[in-house]
Amino acid sequence: MAQRHVASQPYPWPFDGDLRPENTALLAIDMQTDFCGKGGYVDSMGYDISMTRAPIEPLRLVFESFRKQGFHIIHTREGHKPSLADCPANKRWRSRQIGAGIGDPGPCGRVLVRGEPGWNLIPELQPTEAEEVIDKPGKGSFVATDLDLILKQKHVKNLILTGITTDVCVGTTMREANDLGYECLLLSDCTAATDYGNYMATLKTMQQAGGVFGCVAAAADLLKAIGEKVPFAIEESLSDVDLGDGLRVKMPKARDQWMPTSLAETMVAPQMGTKKGFVQADPYLWPFDGQLRKENTALLSINFQKSVFDPEGDFAKSNMQEVLQKSAEVLQMMRFKGFPVLHIRTGQAKDLSDTSRRAAWRHVSQTPRRPGPLGRLVRGDPGWDFVPLMAALPKEAVVEKPTIGAFSFTSLELHLQSLDVRNLVIIGLPTDVCVHTTMRQANDRGYECILLSDCTAAAFSETYYSALKQIKMQHGVFGAVADSTALLEVLGEYGLSHEAAPDRPSAPLNPGVNVEPDSKRLRSAK
Q: Composition bias, kind Basic and acidic residues: at what positions (predicted)?
């Protein structure tokens, strides 16, 4: 069969031109009453649901064409068991702070509970009997679900992402899918968010560095690629937008001209008042339950590697020396007070055998010889090693990751379970890529997360600020944000490391032993 490509950014999708009904699936994420219906979860939080309803018409047209040609369509629904046994305590607490408590009564039944009216998919986009529906308890569609198994059984390689919201559930799912080796395309007019700036920043983040998470296109581009006629009204509704830094996107015409998320919108605004054991963070005092102890809290230090600090690399415009100094202060204090520290390091095998076909292609053709974390990092090369200030001590665990998220194909979760850790203090780079993906993964697994804003950086200022904003929306949908000073002040109240519980190990593995990627699971993702 001849190659077929969608006219997408930053490269024609899919990368290998193998676009067929048999190997391609469309994922319609959370088109539920709770997210785009009157009286649902999003409406109850006070957001404008006209924004989340905007994708309905273009998505309906894509459904029609895909069903006619035999492409796979899979739907997801976010919701919890009636018992709420699968709802983390911090998630329910945050939802109650904004008047839309998960499990509480609402206009559409109990909020985000399976079987309630608000949990149902909207009438305009109902699935057929042949289409799978995935019920998920978190933001990502792969955590605690059988989605990956279903896609593999159907021999799907290409994944088209649609639904709501772009910056939360859709973005999280695309990050997960990319780590699992799927070739991803995000349809700009078949997705939406409650915050237009975050929507735009997500479109930019997904395609930066030669398509770090995949590509972006409009529904019209996809329909043309599969030989379908595109209604004039759909094409007329699109405009070509310059995202800056050489990135562009075709998307619905904006109601207002987009401006990069400003520093004023995202500066950490600590909660007023003080409580012992809480960090002064935004949007709430962290951790939510005040249980900040050496026995349940760990530091995740992500990608403090020599190539990241290359003056010719992705972060040349960022104040990297200040980030490094602030991060080193946090690292030293947490060590001094006896908190466990886990170091995360990105790297691939020299032959890219631990990398998906799409990622290997991007490393070679899209980002050749690039310095920095978004290009190729080879395990064992000088640039792959830690910078001296942030190097691991012999008893500290080092988790080697071959993909973006620190939970993908690694033993990080086993480490945390062995330490009985529930709270994660996160520092590292880049904010919008590896750090954000890891924080989203941790949040879906029930960890209570805080990101230190002056201990992280990104290649683009607007995606850095938007990343901070995305964490804090909906009263901390992914956790909280603070600066390092706020954390250090609280740590100063604790005793020295010798006061920690004597039966708590510094790491669950032998001293100096690195955690290598899970090669068996990696092979299955290719």
A: 517-526
